[in-house]
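Customer escalation, tier 2.

The customer says the design service returned an amino acid string that "doesn't look like it belongs to this structure." They asked us to rerun it and document both sides in this ticket. The original structure tokens are below, unchanged.
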């Protein structure tokens, strides 16, 4: 009974966010679109279509921390300023997409190069594929077919997929990453909800450190490391700040209330 009461209480709140600003409801992205990023800083100047980056594929193979800390990718789309010259020097995408590195038993294709043979002319289209009819190596439905499902985002419970060993995200690249001694993982803790009758939030450092480590969240997103030190609201989260930096675009969205507000109301 309490769950239905809370749901009824929240419906007007989410409706107000959905119709804010434009007055029309945004189209819910399809599962394979969720978390996708279009990189377009320099593409048009080079006569190419923007780059389409699929988070769902890369997050299954690498941790968020590896890319956003060790490789230096910004947390916002088009915030890094990646150029083909950077990739050719082995930075950013070129760290892995150099034609030499492999993931498991599969060689990773080379992204950018100074010289191209005639048969390689279509290689740019493997990344610069926005709006183009480019056949991808990985099909979302086939790749994620055995993964545990959830209701929102791209329909995959990535936590359970990692826990069950279906995916094993790499967190270290030789010559780029540094060896870090394992940190003592803090225990889960509750965050009191500001809305009466709303279940408390259970925050798990253990689950977040699998992908994020500590550096991805502290100090850029959460300045303090002591519980209660950083003050934030649901409005700010819906604006893409704090938890919303990931849970509005890549990790499961904030529309899945019960994934965070999971401690029963006493």
């Amino acid at each position: 009974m309490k769950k239905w009461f809370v749901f009824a209480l929240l419906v007007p709140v989410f409706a107000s966010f959905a119709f804010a600003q434009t007055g029309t409801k945004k189209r819910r992205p399809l599962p394979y679109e969720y978390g996708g990023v279009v990189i377009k800083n320099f593409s048009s100047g080079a006569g190419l279509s923007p780059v389409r980056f699929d988070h769902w594929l890369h997050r299954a193979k690498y941790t968020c921390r590896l890319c956003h800390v060790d490789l230096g990718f910004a947390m916002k789309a088009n915030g890094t300023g990646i150029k083909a010259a950077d990739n050719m020097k082995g930075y950013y995408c070129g760290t892995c997409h150099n034609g030499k590195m492999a993931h498991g038993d599969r060689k990773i294709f080379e992204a950018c190069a100074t010289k191209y043979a005639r048969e390689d002319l279509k290689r740019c289209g493997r990344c610069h594929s926005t709006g183009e009819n480019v056949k991808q190596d990985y099909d979302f439905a086939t790749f994620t077919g055995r993964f545990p499902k959830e209701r929102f985002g791209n329909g995959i419970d990535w936590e359970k997929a990692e826990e069950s060993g279906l995916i094993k995200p790499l967190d270290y690249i030789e010559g780029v990453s540094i060896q870090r001694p394992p940190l003592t993982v803090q225990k889960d803790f509750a965050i009191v909800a500001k809305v009466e009758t709303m279940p408390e939030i259970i925050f798990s450092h253990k689950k977040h450190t699998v992908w994020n480590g500590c550096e991805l969240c502290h100090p850029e997103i959460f300045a303090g490391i002591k519980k209660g030190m950083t003050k934030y609201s649901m409005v700010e989260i819906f604006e893409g700040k704090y938890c919303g930096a990931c849970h509005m675009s890549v990790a499961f969205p904030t529309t899945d209330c019960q994934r965070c507000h999971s401690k029963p109301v006493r």
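Tier 2 assessment: The sequence is consistent with the input. Residues 37-143 form a domain with the Cytochrome C3 fold (CATH 3.90.10.10). Confidence is low (pLDDT under 50) at residues 1-9, 11-20. Sent an explanation to the customer and offered a walkthrough call.
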